[in-house]
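Input:
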Amino acid sequence: MIKTLMNGTNFDHESLNALQKVTLRAVVMSFLFFGLVAIEGMIMKMVQTGPSNPLPKMFSHPEHYFSIMTVHPIVGIFGSTYQLVFAAFMFLVPFLTKKPLYSIKLANAVWLLITIGTALAWIAAFVWQYAPLYTLYWPLPADTTQFSVIGGIVFIIGVALIMLGTLGFIYNIYATIFQRVGVHKDKTTKELLISGFGIDGMLNLIHKLQGKPPYTKEPALALPVVAIFRGTVDTFLDAIVILSAGVLVLVYLLFDASGHALDVTAIDSLLYKNYFWWGLDLVADGLVLIYVAGSWYLLATLITGQKLFMENVARAALMLELLVSWMVWSHHLLADQDQPEMMKLISGEMVTAFELLTQGLALFITLTTLWKARPLKMTMELKYLLGGLVGFGLAVPAAIIQADMGMNRVLHNTQWIIMAHVHIALIVGLYMTLYSALYVLWPIVTNNTKMYSSKLSNLHFWLYLIGGIGMGAFGGMAGLHGMLRRHLYVNGEFNTLMVLAAICGTMVLVAWGIFLFNIVMSVGIKGLIGIFLPAKDPSASYGIEPEVIAENHKA
Amino acid sequence: MTFSNSVELLSFHGVAYTIYAALIISVVAWFGYNLTRENAKSVVRIPFYGYIAFLVAGGVGHHIFTYNTIPWVSQDITRDNIKPDATYNIEIKDHKWINLPKKITVQCGQTIKFDVHSHDLVYGFGLFRKDGSMVMQMQVNPGTDATGILKSNDILWTFNHNGVFDLTSTEYSGPAQYSEDGKDLMFVPDVVEVVGCKGERS
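Output:
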């Protein structure tokens, strides 16, 4: 066992090229941050169980508790999820387009910037207890009567570094897609843009309705690349909004530090809320849903080895999803009485309801593609894909229910939205999709390294699935009983539900430990260190055809 | 069908969502099982356009249903044209309620206007039953208009059941809302009492 722990199964880091290594570096950092975020989540859950929890009293102090709550989503969404998604896409785009990644150096800068940025934000909360929460509702982040100026500056610099890393990822992705090499040697920018926005899919549908031959039989970009292209538009807009909000906070903090504090009332808090939620919602309702839909399509085609069912509809739907994602932010402002009613009605309710349609469509297309290819072997990647579908099948309607003026009046800011929607969408929906992608890509990225134990993989799957759904469900029930999401409960007010949620949360944490152990035993400590050493092979592409992977999944 | 308060609404909602959750988990589990079978047959053939129509009907129908069954939706939209039975102007500054009456007694069926103004931060205004369940809430945004008057955050609420309700801020406004040992300093017990609903205990 010690030998395997040191050397892994058959992993050889020296055989990896530069693209494989940079991908694995980000994956390693992502899962380390996942562990941190799971521990943070468990600390908060334990505090909520009441005074008999075994944690030291300092965790129940409001400064400490809300510091954890502030960095929990920063570490989870940016440190872990962004890293994992960016790593997967910076590998997949070259893999699917059969072109090299535009820049390995930039890819290295991306994971380093996000890692350092996340660490700085965490340090700001840990050392200076800067705790305005991720919502940064104006003027709270600039309230120096409650928070340390230094802590705020460090926090904002951390978030800014994360956003700079994000912009680096965006540049790398688009530069790779628009490179005119390989199969795209003869393509024009216009052709790649039309394909990237899914306009070719829409034109194919229109041509079909008009009885004309298709606009294009072979779109310039594969469907998953279209989803990455499209989702990255939202990633860019979101980065700009968060960066600009960060600059605003930074200016106020710097003036405060210089002894010439600015007037916080110069910024309208409702306008700020609208601007910030427009940007922030591009993560939740934009890039996540679009990236996830694209990942489902990719996984379904790789697992089955068949063409995607209704591909043109899927391409067109991705375009619709992009437009929808720009117009739904008002569902976060249904409890704001001075928000115009028409914005609540149109953006908050009606356009938001379209997400049921776009996500339902992605679910339908993925399931039908799988169904048409049966019988299939129940591989780990297929299991995780189905888990991901369940996650979004549960989480999206939970949000649609609350995106309603009547329901929101009695559910806003309760545990319902954060647990039954956000946590199930992220932990079950998104992460199980990402685990599926990880199992599909594992042999490619690690040069056919054997996974240490399939029993541990299965144990991880079931603990994670049951724990993730259970935690979201019990937390959501607490929301229905009035438990607020951004509130400190130290007297066990919702004790029974929180104990059950904590048990399920522990299952997620244990599952993460099992997964990490399985990975470490597969690559070995030496291999893990080797991932961070320079690659001997500077190649920025990977040549295995997608069809080859599909062969492994047929029963 | 009309929901007279959040207890009825959320109980209905809890049951409906639990049934849906059990259904979607079962369907995907059944689907996964049949994916591996050699001779699995489709039990039902779901027509694509029928499925799309179902999703659209679900998304839009949900709002039509709530508009017609939850009384506070239309009341909220048209609140500027409704004359309340009583109005309470409340302010918040430095995590403290200002002008908050010691007790607001409401007769059953009365419509009350709560107009809340914040001097500094974003707060919330939420009423809760003794079991912790939420009666209603709204956000309280700070700011002043061009003449320097504090911005209004108003809500109309009709109380249809007897009860004694507590108040607290439902939005995070920094750790200063709490004492060092975690006590909510904005929590005000027994601030609203509703009486006079026949057949109900106070």
